[in-house]
Amino acid sequence: MEILTDYHGLRHHFKNVSVGLGNFDGVHLGHQRLINQLVSRARRSKGTSVVFTFEPHPAMVLNPDNAPPLLLASEVKQHLIAGLGVDLLLAVPFTREFASLSPERFVREVLCGEIGAKAVFVGYNYTFGHRGAGTPETLLELSKENGFTVKVIPPVMVQGQPVSSTLVRNLVADGRVEEAKDYLGYYPLFKGTVVAGERRGTRIGFPTANLDVEERVLVPANGVYAVRTLIDNEVFYGVANIGVCPTFAGSAPCKRRIEVFTFDFSGDLYGKSLEVSFVRRLREERRFESAAELVEQIRLDVAAARALAGR
């Protein structure tokens, strides 16, 4: 998949373009259905499948104080979209100037004038243009005079609820990662670089890889999780603690972090990029009266996570 940040003049380089519009935060089952239909149409027409999204998320520009955390970092989102067979991802810089475009100008100047869209795919609740005035109905009306087709993807229902990024975000924030998987199609995941810690895990017999938590990317609620970790394209199972290390914090709480103990791995992880999938929340994070009590609980957590992984 090719990734571009500039859409100007694309019609001169790509023919018979099918475009999917949206933020695609989480690349959940609803997004996957839209993208799958987009890719299928492009292949049938021997054209190009394009996903058009923004960086950063528009809410971070228009209302930064109330912008929701992201389910996925940009790199992870791009990887998931690429895995669905998309030819071209447009990660267009979002600005207040762009936000001022009316729905009509966006369609006329961007979709048709620059990209040359022949088919446009959107979700049932998609909005666009200045103050979100454009809707799927607006697109359908504008398509008649601009010569493209529109496919509106209805809600994907799981357990009687429409799949949405907001729903997934709430489940992940509550630590309900197994339920979130039902709507995502994969376990909630986080990708980060291993940083130096205080080596407390090593001293008590459970060396951990420490990942800093980015404020803009959502991670599950504090607690202990059974996890699956991708290291150098190889899968390892383990347990992860998300939180502030209350047993060792003293009077001052530690910075929130993810600490991953990986089964059956030996080697230096410092500086490596780890992708951690959260499979099940085993328990809440809590403070123990002694290191020995903590070690005993970690042994129980490890046994539970090994049983889940069949290890």
Task: Write a concise synopsis of the structure shown.
By secondary structure, this protein is of the alpha/beta class. It is about 30% helix and about 25% strand. The protein has 2 domains: about 1-160, HUPs (Rossmann fold, 3-Layer(aba) Sandwich), CATH 3.40.50.620; about 190-310, Riboflavin kinase-like (Elongation Factor Tu (Ef-tu), domain 3), CATH 2.40.30.30.
How is the topology of this model organized?
Blueprint: E1 2-4, E2 17-21, H1 29-44, E3 48-55, H2 58-62, H3 74-82, E4 88-93, H4 96-99, H5 103-115, E5 117-123, H6 136-146, E6 149-153, E7 157-158, E8 161-162, H7 165-173, H8 177-184, E9 189-195, H9 200-203, E10 209-212, E11 223-231, E12 234-243, E13 257-262, E14 273-283, H10 291-309
Parallel strand pairs: 1-4, 2-3, 2-5, 3-4, 5-6
Antiparallel strand pairs: 7-8, 9-10, 9-14, 10-13, 11-12, 11-14, 12-13
Helix pairs in contact: 5-6, 7-8
Written description of the protein model:
This protein is an alpha/beta fold and 311 residues long. The protein has two domains: 2-158, 3-Layer(aba) Sandwich (Rossmann fold); 188-309, Beta Barrel (Elongation Factor Tu (Ef-tu), domain 3). It has helices at residues 29-44, 58-62, 74-82, 96-99, 103-115, 136-146, 165-173, 177-184, 200-203, 291-309, and strands spanning 2-4, 17-21, 48-55, 88-93, 117-123, 149-153, 157-158, 161-162, 189-195, 209-212, 223-231, 234-243, 257-262, 273-283. The strands form three sheets. A six-stranded parallel beta sheet has the order 1-4-3-2-5-6, with helices on both faces. It has a six-stranded antiparallel barrel with strand order 9-10-13-12-11-14. Helix 5 (103-115) packs across helix 6 (136-146). The protein starts with a strand and ends with a helix. 35% of the residues are buried.
